[in-house]
Amino acid sequence: MSRIDRRFAALKVAGRTGLIPFVTAGDPAPEHSVALMHALVDAGADIIELGVPFSDPMADGPVIQHASERAIAKGVGLADVLAWVATFRERDKDTPVVLMGYLNPIEIHGYQRFADEAVAAGVDGVLVVDCPLEEAAVLAPLRAAGLQQILLAAPTTAPVRMAQLCEAAAGFLYYVSFAGITGAGRLSTQDIAARVADIRAHAKSPVAVGFGVKDAQSAKAIAGFADAVVIGSALVERLDGAATAQQIAARVGEFLGPIRAALDAPTSSS
Amino acid sequence: MPTIQDFQSWPDAHGRFGDFGGQYVAETLMAPLAELTEAYVRLREDPEFLAELDRDLTHYVGRPSPIYHAERLSQHVGGARILLKREDLNHTGAHKINNTIGQALVAKRMGKPRIIAETGAGQHGVASATVAARFGLKCVVYMGAVDIERQKINVYRMKLLGAEVVPVTSGSKTLKDALNEAMRDWVTNVADTFYIIGTVAGPHPYPMMVRDFNAVVGREARAQMLQQYGRLPDVLTACVGGGSNAIGLFHAFLNDSSVRMVGAEAAGEGIATGHHAASLAAGRPGVLHGNRTYVLCDDNGQITETHSVSAGLDYPGVGPEHAFLKDAGRAEYVGVTDDEALEAFHLLARTEGILAALESSHAVAQAMKLARELPKDGIVLCNLSGRGDKDVHTIAAREGVQV
Fold it and tell me: Which of A62, A84, B263, B392 is deepest in the core (most CB within 10 A)?
């Protein structure tokens, strides 16, 4: 059983909704990246989604694009990200880490080389934004090495395709809660609830919902019907400008604390 | 199944040209792309649609464009005859309208009232704004802030045509960033919006669709050659940024094995300086903007900033069909520097009375090189993809002239 599968099994037993924060690796401060990961866990993260900076993040909004640009300007690359995960693993053997990013950095690094190094570093899953199911053959070396390929599903995904995604899902299926870019503010809870209920009934893995979740209230609204909640842009925005490990940990705590509490409050049932 | 013997049979059903092309996009785009692919695959064989397209190409765009023997330029160069396919004479002054008129008709058939476009030099933006006005569609054009500064006339032209021009200030503030932004708009507004991509890049079906609409250039040129010269040219040349005018010229000739094809990429200040936009001549296979192709990137896979005197060639990727033709050995791709393009610009102006676009001037420079290598009865057919009026200020500024 993979680390991700174990984590979701434990959440189910405990009757809790998972919290999956996303941060861009190397932002706001490359030297505190590992400290940031530990701070996320301390604040209640069940799984960490670590963004690999890319120069042309087509599916992300301005907040994450700018975080990527800042990290790239400081020289952050895939090798750094893998090194940080390895260091994080020295102290944390349990929290799953998913790398989220775009195909080109992996392609240029080399698929087999990336697969070997990521597994050695302790990475559990990869979510390659611009690699849909149709193109996923290129990621075969990653899957063979034991990395789970996290798939995305969207409100625009057609029923036949949704069935294919549910069948192919590994780790968790990431449902983007509206047809748009990350960080924009549209969210119709009823729409999402209905779609997610249907997906959960068919998917071979738990369902995490993300895109547009920005605070305790919006997280709580989703917690009622999802296995986990993903929070990205709002957190990345909150971290912008934090310079020391202490500042980073404080902001993570202030931001994720109320969300964790809201997810764990007794009224939330799933 | 497409075969290497039949170069015109690509892409395959998945939008792949050999190892290149495909649909490398986020899940949110898969449904709109499926909708578009289904509509376009039907329309490209619909006689009524093709007749409507043909009518507009004839009466609105002004096709066919002539092939013109640049006699004085050829004499000056001293070699083979240089013929120019005069796409600069099209309505709006470039080949770009062949594609936008086609896509606007597809948008109309799909019932999408709003079109969006990205633009580099502004030519595709103007061509999109033009057809939006022609068909009564709302039009939003994304353009890098740097490009807006160097192409002010085209920005104003778009506004006169009723389009909204949105400056893009992320990344390098040029074409690739405008493309990212347009993709985001499309993801967010797919229900009523049609995205007119201006070159043979992007996810399937765009490379095929944009190629199909520009292939009229080569079809005409091939027929004109046979009719007027009783033979095919020895070599074709065209400039390559994304590569739409080049594939437009090349496609009809792909199975004519006697015809050599040379794409002229922007070598900027010279490929060795790193300041260039020659993805095929100096890049490597990667994934950018929805397709696998040759890209300019560093060892971390980050797309690098490009340089060219011409905004329209300033792009770090290239259409996947060109990547395929390069690897298959069917076409060659070489770099032409800023200085060589400017020299060709001036020479063409003075010997033939034609102001070529800076993009097209790269092709003219390459045509001159090729003509020198061939005997006097040889023929080089060069795609003069656009006119140079838009570049007059850039050239004056570069040469220290106050206009």
Answer: B263
